[in-house]
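Title: Comparing notes on inverse folding

I've been comparing how different people in this forum approach sequence design from structure. To keep things fair, I'm posting one structure and asking everyone to reply with a full sequence. Here's the target:
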């Protein structure tokens, strides 16, 4: 969600090179790039991300800032995560023509490789300060009137590498084959936010909230093309034929708005709108070539959530999230497609907006030691990878080969269903520990957090 999920994102970009061995466009076939714009916090993670209608802990700063009104004590929250992503990329094989069964030309059809990226470290830190009503004329004197929170959140961190051997192809009517130039790629990308959020109790049971975050963006990617030892031989990494780079550091500011209804009842409804920031970086398509500014746009997110307590020990939650993934088409995708050598190729790459559905449940065993909270969840993650569909029929043989390569490399996206589970323990009245995990095909996230509260009134997550 929110930051979401925004999640969420599986972004695949391809830029090809190497048509005939003697001539190829100086661009880079880029590995599918998985963006996870997930809410912080193991509780949200364990409940399948269905949190905008719950939002009862410090992570509400991003999931739904209006939910901060439910926190009645000062608290500090720290989260750490281990994330493992496995992205598939077109590594080799023969896409068309007859396999020669010599050298590296031994596989009929595409051969995909796995680019594994793993990261572990602190991802979320927050400080929450509630302020109670003090006006003696106010019938709700002593209850929380407004809440202020500060947070740091690691929204995205990607560290991926891959090496392809180059696919073999043969155009209809041709007597000879062509081979894509082998490629070696490294990509590092991170987005970190620093923000302030506030919630205000408009009236009993209704709260509004908003936040403003400063985002730090960094990208450092290099894509190299190499010669081969003969047409059928292994890549010759000692002879570099070309490279392209993406480098930049930038900042952006973006707001979020939240509404929570039913804060004092068994049923709650929450709404969140999070505006995605935009960043500029520089790309160079060839050694010594001109530098060009390109914009990376984080998707906007709109989420609507409900939560209900049929019994005090049971919490059920539902959320529907709309994510504007198509923002990533603007420049970040189309700029890279523009130099593939295919006419109008920038119009052929598409990313569809996605609608996610999140379900979660929590069961509190109050009579057990540490009052454990058992959590489970699931959510539907629609395919939001880049797709390729030629805007015009191929005019030349080279266009046809590029179309075949693009369509194959961008064929691995799919819809996914994530499963999640977790546990929360009240170690002492002021210290809470949580753990949660989210598992899907080729993706695993494990999160843990510690919450320390101060003050005499009960409060915190339920």
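Reply #1:
Here's my take.
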């Amino acid at each position: 969600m929110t930051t979401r999920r925004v999640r969420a994102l599986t972004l695949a970009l391809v830029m090809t090179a190497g048509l005939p061995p003697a001539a190829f466009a100086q661009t880079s076939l880029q590995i599918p790039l998985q963006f996870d714009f997930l809410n912080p916090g193991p509780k949200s993670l364990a409940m399948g991300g269905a949190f905008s209608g719950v939002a009862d802990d410090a992570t509400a700063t991003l999931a739904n800032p209006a939910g901060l009104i439910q926190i009645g004590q000062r608290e500090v929250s720290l989260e750490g995560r281990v994330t493992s992503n496995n992205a598939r990329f077109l590594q080799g094989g023969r896409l068309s023509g007859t396999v020669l069964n010599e050298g590296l030309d031994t596989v009929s059809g595409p051969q995909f490789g796995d680019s594994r990226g793993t990261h572990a470290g602190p991802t979320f830190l927050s400080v929450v300060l509630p302020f109670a009503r003090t006006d003696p004329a106010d019938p709700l004197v002593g209850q929380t009137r407004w809440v202020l929170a500060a947070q740091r959140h690691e929204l995205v961190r990607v560290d991926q590498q891959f090496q392809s051997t180059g696919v073999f192809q043969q155009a209809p009517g041709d007597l000879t084959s062509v081979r894509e130039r082998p490629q070696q790629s490294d990509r590092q990308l991170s987005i970190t936010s620093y923000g302030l959020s506030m919630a205000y109790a408009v009236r009993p049971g209704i709260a509004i909230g908003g936040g403003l975050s400063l985002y730090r963006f960094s990208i450092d990617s290099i894509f190299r093309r190499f010669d081969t030892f003969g047409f059928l031989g292994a890549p010759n990494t000692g002879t570099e034929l070309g490279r392209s780079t993406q480098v930049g550091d930038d900042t952006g500011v973006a707001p979020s708005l939240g509404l929570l209804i039913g804060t004092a009842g068994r049923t709650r409804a929450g709404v969140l709108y999070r505006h995605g920031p935009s960043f500029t970086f520089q790309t160079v398509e060839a050694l010594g070539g001109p530098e060009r500014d390109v914009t990376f746009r984080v998707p906007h997110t709109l989420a609507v959530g409900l939560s209900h307590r049929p019994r005090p020990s049971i919490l059920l939650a539902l959320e529907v999230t709309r994510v504007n993934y198509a923002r990533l088409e603007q420049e970040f995708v189309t700029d890279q497609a523009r130099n593939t050598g295919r006419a109008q190729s920038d119009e052929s790459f598409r990313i569809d907006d996605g609608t996610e559905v999140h379900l979660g449940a929590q069961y509190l065993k109050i009579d057990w030691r540490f009052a454990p909270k058992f959590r489970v969840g699931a959510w539907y993650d629609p395919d939001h990878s880049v797709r390729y569909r030629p805007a015009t029929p191929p005019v030349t043989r080279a266009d046809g080969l590029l179309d075949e390569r693009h369509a194959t490399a961008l064929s691995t996206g799919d819809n996914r269903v994530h499963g999640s589970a977790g546990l929360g323990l009240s170690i002492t009245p002021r210290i809470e520990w949580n753990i949660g995990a989210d598992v899907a095909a080729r993706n695993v996230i494990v999160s843990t957090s510690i919450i320390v509260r101060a003050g005499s009134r009960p409060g915190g997550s339920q």
